[in-house]
Amino acid sequence: MITINQLMAMKQRGEKITCLTCYDASFSRLLERAGVELILVGDSLGMVLQGHDSTLPVTMDDMIYHARCVTRQSGSALYIVDLPYHSYLTVESALQNAQRLMEQGGAQMVKLEGAMMDVVSALVDQGYPVCAHLGLLPQSVNELGGYHVQGRSEEQAQIILDDAIALQQAGASLLVLECVPASLGKRISLALDIPVIGIGAGVDCDGQVLVLYDALGITPGKRPRFSKDFLAENEDIAAALKAYVRAVKDELFPAAEHSF
Ligand code: KIV
């Protein structure tokens, strides 16, 4: 398994970290073979698998079921699993649900959205590695009024930067940064010691993540600007996944057209 120390070393030597979401065993094997370092069982499964228009209806039982499918034949990637909506409202519920994701789902790290410093530090104190998530927070889509780029004004950007630093201080091991201007992605990646994994946050983040179905061009509806269909220019899924890994490592993805 890739360790947090290895990910930190990759950041220090400037080697880009690759991550894709995954929801089942077959794709888990393909992602391992393609060489991604991080596999994220994302609550985006509510949208791309279950057909909801947000991630809010996803339950703990859904996450455990798909996490188990993905992690059953574990390889060398690090498995991160999302804590779903309302599963970490209190420190107590966060601890209980993180334990379930690790023990029943096979998670090696849990991910949660927002500036939840108290929850992060309680989880880390109890030995649960945490990936934080800032910028566009899909679980807060109703408060945000839609899926929009965050951190465009200097004031908003400073809040996200301050939250990122506070989450690192609380003990987060990784940060996913979603849909912010590329200049802010760079600023936060430079300011933090922990790796920053961007999605729509520009090429200067320490790594990249995409929703698997976006990377294969099979998500119904309009393709988000920050994603790319890697299957369109490759002969099969295995080749498309390898092309994604190569493009991220070579800093060819995301290009300016995928950034804000
Ligand atoms: O659930 C998910 O797929 C995610 C990615 C958007 C990073 O959190």
The radius of gyration computed from the alpha-carbon positions, rounded to a whole number of angstroms, is 17 Å
| Total beta strands | 8
Question: Main β-sheet: number of strands, strand sense, barrel status?
Answer: 8 strands, parallel, barrel
- Residues in β-strands, percent: 5-15%
> How much helix is in the residues?
40-55%
| Largest beta sheet: strand ordering | 1-2-3-4-5-6-7-8
In whole angstroms, the N-to-C terminal distance is 33 Å
Helix and strand content put the structural class at: alpha/beta
Key features of this structure:
single chain; 260 residues; alpha/beta; 8 strands
Protein described:
The chain is α/β, with parallel strands linked by helices and 260 residues long. The protein has eleven helices and eight strands. Strands 1-2-3-4-5-6-7-8 form an eight-stranded parallel barrel, surrounded by eight helices. β3 (78-82), α5 and β4 (109-113) form a beta-alpha-beta unit. The model has no long low-confidence stretch (mean pLDDT 97). The structure holds 3-methyl-2-oxobutanoic acid. 3-methyl-2-oxobutanoic acid (KIV) is lined by residues 21, 42-44, 82, 176, 178, 199, 209, 211.
